[in-house]
Amino acid sequence: MVTQRDVARRAGVSVRTVSNVVNNFAYVSEETRAQVQRALDELDYRPNLAARSLNRGRSNLLALVLPLDVPYFTELAAHVVDQAEERGYTVLLDRTEGSAERERQILMRRDRSALFDGFIFSPLGLTEDELRSWAGDCPAVMLGEVQVEGVDHVAIDDTAAAKAATEHLISLGRTRIAAIGVPHRPKASAGRPARATAAHRSAGYEQALTEAGLPIRPELTVRVRRYQRQDGRDAMERLLDLAEPPDAVFCYNDLLALGAMRAVLARGLRVPQDVAVAGFDGIDEGRFATPPLTTVVPDKARIAELAVTRLLERVEGDKSPAVQLEAPWRLMIDESTAGVPEAGE
Amino acid sequence: MVTQRDVARRAGVSVRTVSNVVNNFAYVSEETRAQVQRALDELDYRPNLAARSLNRGRSNLLALVLPLDVPYFTELAAHVVDQAEERGYTVLLDRTEGSAERERQILMRRDRSALFDGFIFSPLGLTEDELRSWAGDCPAVMLGEVQVEGVDHVAIDDTAAAKAATEHLISLGRTRIAAIGVPHRPKASAGRPARATAAHRSAGYEQALTEAGLPIRPELTVRVRRYQRQDGRDAMERLLDLAEPPDAVFCYNDLLALGAMRAVLARGLRVPQDVAVAGFDGIDEGRFATPPLTTVVPDKARIAELAVTRLLERVEGDKSPAVQLEAPWRLMIDESTAGVPEAGE
């Protein structure tokens, strides 16, 4: 079957432009419209009429509800926007900062179905009851942190990834390996859903230590309130003040790791010689840090593709049971752990 | 007059919650509703009935259309969301990456007025004609880069700020001061509005050099395609390959500066001893870089406040002539230019 993508390639325009012509939107120039029409004719493109009929009354807007103060989500959002755009949808973002009130403000609007065809979000504030009742009557896919029964969910294997990062630090001969990012409230409480991601990362960290015969030292495990650079810096300061400070640290996201690295370097200590630092997220910022950051890189493009594909199946009426979809990840080893020797060493 | 803010303080809840109660939204718990109602009664709060009547038929949604791949805008967006929330509005973000098609997709929708009460945006792709005709029938405020006649605009004095940053580098005794970030297309062309910001920063850079009696050397002025870390790194590599490389560099945003700094450090050169590096934007990332980045810090909270205030005046029917609003900035001097001496030096 000829797709809009084929037509776009032939006409030398974007899929979005083809979609605009097919849907007879106003803002395509006459010249471009003619060019696309030629390609449509040449390829004998036939729109999926069932889909277009279903499509009536829709806004073609998807809502992406995320804490955008973390670059991981900003980068993930770019992929979601791309994936949705290829399918003719516009994505609007709502930044929540994990605030329950902000999540309610957008998710609980009475006109939400008129505004949005579907939702992709990473809820941090709503209660499990709210999420379940909400998700019951709205196409939705959840990402990351929180899982709720009966709602499609996309994530990576956080335990395996955290274990691999910790094993890498062990393989360098480090024995006092700290962890920064244990949540203050790791388990479900007060009607809130479990924040699964951090708990999974802790599990992977502990498994790696145990399998290597290393003790799990509570003083090397630091809780944080948020996942920002300053939290990582504060946590590392406390670790460096210990009588026996760590020789390596695994941070549950890259911002924590960049803050931790700053704390080490600001004391005149060296990364990785004195303290090896590993992060999680694979954000662009880590590649440009000095030294560049070793990190777990989730396949963000694949996460976005799985989430958008699943969501649009729901938008089109799929009522099958909820699924857990898993995307791949890789460990990117760089100078913050396995540094190239400095001149003179 | 008693405001919702007063009521919120008395009731010990957020302004948003008060607004939800006043507007009789569904998702406030009975307990909280009673608490707010007590405070409303005690303070004898009277809603602004004219405003509430005008408010009928509105979505209470604002659109913020920005290139979110630059942390400056992500941080600015947080302030806009806060400011709008205090006034009972929800902000949805559309990330454009400066693509004209994406801007059109959201700005040119036929149902835009049903979706959004107003727009705040930083357009990079639309033509001046499109912007003028669009802004004519939609409440809108523009930020940063582009100015269009007849549309309210909020910015800082880019020329003065760039001049101050360059003068700071001159005050350190540097004489070969490079600039990274000159746009490929500095002037209006092909119907596109002038990208004013970069041109203003170039003007400030050149004024500072000229007033100090230093030559403007074309080989030290590097054009970039985008304002990302990799562009800064590539530009700096070229500068370091010159027969006479620069001893300082002023970058038109922090991402360029962080990429430039990485290029210097990766060659085993020192910042600031061999090359002093200054940026522009005051993003959080720069404070955690090693060394921390000297940068121009626009007052983002004030920019957001001016933009939201002006936009809501337009939403409420203000038809007065368009204004240029200016927010303050400051130069934050840190170790990337005025480094503390290293131990042993």
UniProtKB/TrEMBL annotation, chains A, B:
Q: InterPro entries in the record, alphabetically? A: HTH_LacI (IPR000843), LacI/GalR-like_sensor (IPR046335), Lambda_DNA-bd_dom_sf (IPR010982), Peripla_BP_I (IPR028082)
- Matches recorded under Gene3D superfamilies: 3.40.50.2300, lambda repressor-like DNA-binding domains
Question: Keywords for this entry?
Answer: DNA-binding, Transcription, Transcription regulation
Record-annotated HTH lacI-type domain positions:
2-56
Does the record bear Transferase in its keywords?
A: no
**PROSITE patterns, A to Z:** HTH_LACI_2
A Gene Ontology molecular function term of the record: transcription cis-regulatory region binding
Q: Know the name of this protein?
A: DNA-binding transcriptional regulator, LacI/PurR family
In which organism is this protein found?
Answer: Nonomuraea solani
